[in-house]
Design brief:
Layout (H helix, E strand, L loop, with lengths): L2 E2 L4 H13 L10 H23 L5 H7 L3 H32 L4 H16 L2 H9 L1 H4 L2 E5 L6 E6 H4 L2 H26 L3 H9 L4 H31 L11 H12 L2 H30 L25 E2 L1
Antiparallel strand pairs: 1-4, 2-3
Helix pairs in contact: 3-13, 4-5, 4-9, 4-12, 5-9, 6-9, 9-11, 10-11, 11-13, 12-13
């Protein structure tokens, strides 16, 4: 004859209380606040989008008409060309200035510091206007021997300083000051032991920078450089004040004839948003490339399900 002995109700109650205190049975609280916030944001965002799309004052049919118009696309090409040229020149000059800032030579450190102080301390718009009106100060640019009247070569300033050259000079020189600080911060982020190792192997400073230090500093340089590139795209709109035919200048020329100000500004806004969105994707891809081997991978091992102790054991006694 088999006898089945059950645990007492008191023991079962104690076991249930122990399970409630056991972290193995912990469950996260329902995220009601998160769901509510999502609903609120979706409702407000969709309502705002609906108001913008249905507002007749935006004149979306005019936006669609001029969005791919020839003069607008030509202005877009000028904007992209200015961005690429100015960013490349600014980065190269900024690299040189950043290295000078970390040099042991006081003269180089002083020159780099003075350059950065001046170009970061004056507005970009003022610099553009200054370069455009350089002929007011120097009607002719001459190459002469110091403290003599012997002229080796001379050029008319108005022939050299066109709206294009003024825009490139203003944007590139201003960008170099910011890139110098970004590159300097990136170089300082590299462990000093790396520099000592290159010196122990007898590597020259230039080769150590090119092969060891700069590749490691890129992880710190890329994110702010991407931000600077996006800022450069928007900063090119300032060249419209010196009659440079960029994207903003092109849409301004159109709405000065048609008086469709808001639709034409929306054309420029949409193009700027498209360009910056593409640049954001490219920046993310480059960051992932330089972060190879350094990204911290977090993996949570699946916790085995605990034994269900809520069912009392049954013992058979013969």
């Amino acid at each position: 004859m088999s006898l089945i002995r059950h645990d007492s109700p008191i023991r079962e109650e104690r076991r249930d209380e122990a399970q409630l205190r056991d972290v193995a049975f912990a469950r996260s609280a329902p995220a009601y606040g998160r769901w509510i916030s999502w609903i609120v944001v979706l409702v407000v965002g969709s309502n705002l989008l609906w108001l913008v799309m249905t507002n007749p004052n935006f004149e979306w049919q005019v936006v669609l008409k001029w969005f791919t118009e020839g003069s607008v696309l030509k202005g877009l090409q000028v904007t992209l060309g200015l961005t690429v040229i100015s960013m490349v020149l600014g980065t190269l000059l900024g690299l040189l200035l950043g290295v000078w800032r970390l040099s042991d030579n006081r003269l180089l450190r002083g020159i780099a510091g003075l350059y950065i102080w001046f170009f970061r301390g004056t507005p970009l718009l003022v610099q553009l206007i200054f370069w455009y009106n350089l002929s007011t100060l120097f009607p002719a640019l001459s190459l002469t021997l110091p403290w003599t009247d012997i002229t080796l070569a001379s050029w008319n300033t108005n022939d050299l300083i066109t709206p294009l050259t003024a825009a490139i000079a203003g944007l590139a020189l201003n960008e170099a000051a910011y890139m110098a600080e970004i590159i300097r911060a990136g170089l300082l982020s590299v462990d000093n032991g790396q520099v000592e190792t290159t010196q122990a192997f007898g590597m020259s400073r230039a080769r150590a920078l090119r092969r060891i230090i700069i590749p490691q500093a890129m992880r710190s340089i890329i994110p702010p450089t991407g931000n600077q590139l996006i800022s450069m795209i928007k900063a090119t709109s300032l060249v419209s004040v010196i009659a440079m035919g960029d994207l903003l200048y092109s849409v301004q020329a159109i709405y000065n004839r048609t008086f469709e100000i808001i639709p034409m500004l929306m054309v420029a806004v949409i193009w700027y948003l498209l360009i910056t969105s593409i640049l954001n994707l490219g920046q993310s891809a480059i960051e992932r490339y330089y972060a190879r081997g350094t990204r911290r991978v977090t993996s949570v091992a699946k916790r085995p399900s605990p034994r269900n102790n809520s069912v009392p054991r049954q013992k058979e006694e013969q």
